[in-house]
C-alpha cells in the first residue's frame, strides 16, 4: 500500500455571529484573514505572527488556532503543529472543525511515525465525518503501518531472546572448555606426582638391589652346620693330641 496521506488544507473563514458587534472580534478576524493571505504566499513567518496576534486579541478564535497549526505543519514544525491542533480541537465549535483538527493531527503523527496515535486521531476524525474518503484511506494506512511496526518489534524481541540463549550456550561451552583445561592441568599435575612417586619407588628398588642381601638359614641347616663344626673341631683336637704324643721326651730306664 503506497503512502498517500495528505493534510486537508482549507481556511476556516467563518465568523462567529455573536462576536460581529465586537470590535475586538473584528480585529482578530481581520488579522486571521491577513494571516491567510501570507500563508498562501508561503510567507509562513508573517502568517504565524498574524495568527498569534489574532489569538492574543481573541483567545477563543479557533480559526486562527487551526490555521496557525497548518502554518507550523507546512513549515515542518511537527511538534508545534501537534500542540496547536490539540488546542484547536479543544476550541472546536462544530463536528466539521473536530473532523479537520483530528485528521490533520493524525497526519502529524504519521510524519513522526507514531502510528498508534495516528490511528486514534483518524478514528476520531471519522467519528465526526464518516464519509470522508481521505480520512478513511489514512486510517487504513495507519493501521497497516502499525501492524508492520508491531511485527518488527516482536521479531526484534524474539531475536534478542535467541541471542541471549546463544550467549548462555556460549558461556556454558566456555565453562566446559575451562573445566577441561583445568582437568588437563590437574591430570598433568597428577602425572607429575605419579612420576615422582614412581621415581622414588625405582630409587628404593635400586637401593635394595645395591644392598647385599642376607641369606636366611633354616633351623635344620643351622644344626647341620653346628655338627659339621663340632666334627671339624674334634678332628683338629685329635691331630693336636697325636702331635703331643709324638713330641714328648722318653725317659731312659734306669740301669741297675
List the main descriptive attributes of the protein structure presented here.
256 residues, mainly alpha, 8 helices, 0% strand, disordered C terminus
Brief rundown of the structure:
Helix 1 (23-40) packs antiparallel against helix 2, helix 5 packs antiparallel against helix 6 and helix 6 (115-128) packs antiparallel against helix 7 (133-210). This protein has helices at 23-40, 44-57, 62-74, 78-91, 95-111, 115-128, 133-210, 219-247. The N and C termini lie far apart (180 Å).
List the helices and strands and how they pair.
Elements: H1 23-40, H2 44-57, H3 62-74, H4 78-91, H5 95-111, H6 115-128, H7 133-210, H8 219-247
Helix pairs in contact: 1-2, 1-3, 2-3, 3-4, 4-5, 5-6, 6-7
Largest sheet: none
The Cα radius of gyration reads: 61 Å
Based on DSSP secondary structure assignment, what is the total number of beta strands? Answer: 0
**SSE pattern, N- to C-terminal:** HHHHHHHH
- Give unreliable regions as ranges: 13-21, 206-215, 244-256
Bulk shape:
rod-shaped
Kindly estimate the percentage of residues that lie in beta strands according to DSSP: under 5%
Task: State mean pLDDT (0 to 100 scale).
Answer: 76
Through-space gap between termini? 180 Å
Structural class: mainly alpha
Count of helical segments? 8
Share of helical residues: over 70%
Notes on the structure:
Helix 2 packs antiparallel against helix 3 and helix 6 runs antiparallel to helix 7. This protein has eight helices and no strands. It has 256 residues and is mainly alpha-helical.
